[in-house]
């Protein structure tokens, strides 16, 4: 088995998958345990040909895949992995760099710094922030809150009721309390209700998961500065939108954050996993994480990015983001984000104009919250029916106690036809 | 840009890299900042051809890569990414599954469970443990200790002075204290000195980072059981050796662990990142991490692996391990591990028989600790000279206050000739 022998078949499988994913049911149409039951209970004694793996990928695994790469994946935030990003992952796995110290992979350590600077420029962020890559926003948030605890000594994390569940998970892991602030009628943190007693950090969200609401960051920053509280901004989804100047209204106040997370694997066409964490107080991250034992000591006067987060071993994740930024350029990224926002706007208009349907939250970016003008049960049944059809996959949330449907656009391959088809499927159902 | 157009060039780059890595300097011969200075300070406005990325990979990035894939990488633990594993990473990036809930990727969730069961069988572990994949042992340890805190209410983590630094990092993150127990004359935790007052967990190491010593797990398990303390076993490196029955002496007592970490990216030829965490008390992991908000609620009666660790978004990591286990089979894995142990034994013999050199710790698996019979400065200078030659890359540790060289064998491509050359280089220097 070798890249020369089996690589072409693997590559062909990958290309063919992307060519046919449009025709596959978006949500996997299997029951729990069904895939498992089709797999052998024990590993083979002797090596098998790689071709058998590819065959089983088609016959056994694929029916159990929910196709995030489908142009009609409209659930959660619709991530997608672009082709330059996919090839970069092949290259990263080939190099297999383990960048826990600078010297164990100088190029990936330095490319990570450069790529984060590039991303900061593309998104219009302040110069000079320290940036590095974590796997997910959950872990970026853990790192940011650990730094906040270190810097402030506080033991409460403050966020809105609409903040992502990973904030509470991170606080619990760190032994911190979570204090939830009410929201206003547009699902934004109500800055008037901020109570910063014993606070280590406020997590402000730009683009909440339910409705993509934008918390009033300038007012939150005022309060944080007055009380010496760390301001962490969670722009995991919406931060990518800042590549378009016309969407930077949502960046107001973010320049005053102590830390910021943006996930290019969400809306910058970079394969999982790639979560960017910037901070203007990197010394607090180092204080939380740096600990150098003898067997890792070197005379190198260069920073090791493992000093800034929970993991020691670090994959060459910057390669895929660097590749995507280069192959698309600023213009290419802007064009895709703009098209997604345009498609969401279009869909929003269809819902608004159709009797029997209602919009449930202001649309800020590429997510529309809506429902049938009917009870929760009917909307819930509608969602189940649609997802069971395999034609599209959408998810839900609950707003003001009501069951609400969400259509999220973010897949690189999504076209106006796909969004129109989603609307047709919804109306038919 | 597409997989069809640019994929063959990327694949050829990868294959060519593996063909020529033997001829490249193992440790990157660059100074801090050198790679960064060769990269543009700003991202491009317009997209660039993928071919430019490949060109820069050769011209700019490669000189800054420390070649973990080189057969003469003998530093730390010598990881390597096998070709089946590399191709599986291409496929995983193509599918781009984000398995935070079962339904968002049933196949990757279930394949992860199956693959962990396969691995448990290969390593001779008890049946029925719950297993999942984290990125690194650092994060697996965080998850295990969070579960221990949840299960016991203790606030001290006990480990030996030779435990990996990630234990102390994890404890600090969780707001727990670390208590270090002295070691015996073979660098094993001295079970007589165990003090379990207020302990949440003991971390026992099978295969310490410095010398691959094996802590007395049965005695530690006795103490943990008596005191209701969680036993976490760190076998990140040495656990892979259990694929060979003759190396399972080091597994004594591990069946009594509450949690266990083994990293196939260390010594099972799986690309970074793949850290396996098993537990016989999965409910404690769930208690530490599960928190399901409305927008993630589904009616599926199936477990979501994000309930067992810090990250919510989960890459399709099981695919590469499953592929490696299939393409190598039990016999293929055993043959490679045995050969590495044989080569380490050979090297150990050469050192033992050569006047002017000494062995510094018992060899248990594929790592040899040794030094010139001379002062620390001379050994340190020797290491620097050798690594600067680019011919081999080895690392060091400190034992009983003395500077000690380490030769670690683990790269799939390492042959007897490579080890012989390492010895020649060392003697010449």
Task: Give a short synopsis of this structure.
2 copies of one chain form a homodimer. In chain A, 41% of the residues lie in helices and 13% in strands.
Question: What's the assembly state of these chains?
Answer: homodimer
Q: What is the class of the largest domain in chain A in the CATH system?
A: Alpha Beta
So what's the overall shape of chain A? globular
Greatest chain-chain contact: A-B, 137 and 137 residues
- Assign the CATH topology of the largest domain in chain A: Aspartate Aminotransferase, domain 2
**Helix/strand-derived class of chain A?**
alpha/beta
Radius of gyration of chain A over all CA atoms, rounded: 23 Å
- Which stretches of chain A of 5+ consecutive residues score pLDDT under 50? none
Portion in strands of chain A:
5-15%
Main beta-sheet annotation of chain A: 7 strands, mixed
Tell me the number of strands of chain A.
Answer: 11
Task: Write down the domain tally of chain A.
Answer: 2
CATH architecture of the largest domain in chain A: 3-Layer(aba) Sandwich
**Widest beta sheet: strand line-up of chain A:** 1-7-6-5-4-2-3
Count of DSSP helices of chain A?
13
> CATH superfamily of the largest domain in chain A, please?
Type I PLP-dependent aspartate aminotransferase-like (Major domain)
What is the strand and helix layout of this fold?
The structure is a homodimer of 429-residue chains.
Chain A lengths: L2 H18 L13 H4 L12 H12 L21 H13 L10 H18 L6 E5 L2 H16 L3 E5 L4 H9 L3 E5 L17 E7 L11 H11 L2 E5 L24 E4 L1 H4 L7 E5 L2 H8 L28 H36 L3 E3 L7 E6 L3 H14 L5 E5 L2 E7 L7 H13 L1
Parallel strand pairs in A: 2-3, 2-4, 4-5, 5-6
Antiparallel strand pairs in A: 1-7, 6-7, 8-9, 9-11, 10-11
Helix pairs in contact in A: 4-11, 5-11, 6-7, 6-10, 11-13
């Amino acid at each position: 088995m070798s890249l020369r022998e089996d690589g072409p078949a693997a590559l062909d499988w990958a290309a063919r998958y992307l060519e046919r994913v449009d025709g596959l049911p978006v949500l996997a149409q299997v029951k729990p345990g069904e895939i498992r039951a089709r797999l052998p209970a024990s590993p083979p004694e002797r090596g098998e040909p790689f071709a058998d793996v590819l065959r089983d990928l088609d016959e056994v695994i694929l029916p159990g895949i929910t196709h995030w790469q489908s142009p009609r994946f409209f659930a959660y935030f619709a991530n997608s992995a672009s082709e330059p990003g996919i090839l970069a992952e092949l290259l990263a796995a080939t190099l297999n760099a383990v960048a826990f110290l600078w010297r164990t992979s100088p190029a990936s350590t330095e490319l990570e710094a450069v790529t984060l600077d590039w991303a900061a420029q593309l998104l219009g962020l302040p110069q000079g922030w320290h940036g590095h890559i974590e796997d997910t926003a959950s872990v970026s948030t853990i790192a940011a809150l650990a730094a906040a605890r270190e810097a402030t000594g506080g033991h409460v994390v403050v966020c809105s009721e609409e903040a992502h569940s990973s904030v509470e998970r991170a606080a619990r892991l760190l032994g911190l309390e979570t204090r939830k602030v009410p929201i206003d009628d547009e699902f934004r943190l109500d800055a008037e209700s901020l109570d910063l007693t014993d606070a280590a950090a406020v997590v402000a969200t730009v683009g909440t998961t339910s409705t993509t609401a934008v918390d009033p960051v300038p007012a939150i920053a005022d309060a944080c500065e007055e009380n010496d509280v760390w301001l962490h901004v969670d722009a995991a989804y919406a931060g990518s939108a800042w590549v378009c100047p016309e969407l930077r209204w949502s960046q107001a106040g973010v320049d005053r954050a102590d830390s910021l997370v943006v996930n290019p694997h969400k809306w910058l066409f970079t394969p999982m996993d790639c979560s960017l964490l910037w901070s203007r107080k990197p010394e607090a991250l180092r204080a939380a994480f740096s600990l150098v034992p003898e067997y890792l000591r070197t005379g190198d006067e260069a920073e090791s990015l493992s000093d800034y987060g929970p993991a020691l071993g670090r994959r060459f994740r910057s390669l895929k983001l660097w590749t995507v930024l280069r192959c698309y350029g600023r213009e290419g990224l802007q064009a895709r984000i703009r098209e997604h926002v345009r498609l969401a706007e279009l869909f929003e208009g269809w819902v608004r104009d159709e009797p029997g349907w209602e919009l449930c939250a202001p649309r800020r970016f590429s997510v529309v919250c809506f429902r049938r003008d009917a009870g929760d049960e009917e909307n819930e049944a509608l969602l189940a029916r649609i997802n069971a059809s395999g034609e599209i996959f959408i998810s839900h949330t609950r707003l003001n106690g009501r069951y609400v449907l969400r259509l999220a656009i973010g897949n690189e391959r999504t076209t106006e036809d796909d969004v129109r088809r989603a609307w047709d499927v919804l109306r038919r159902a």
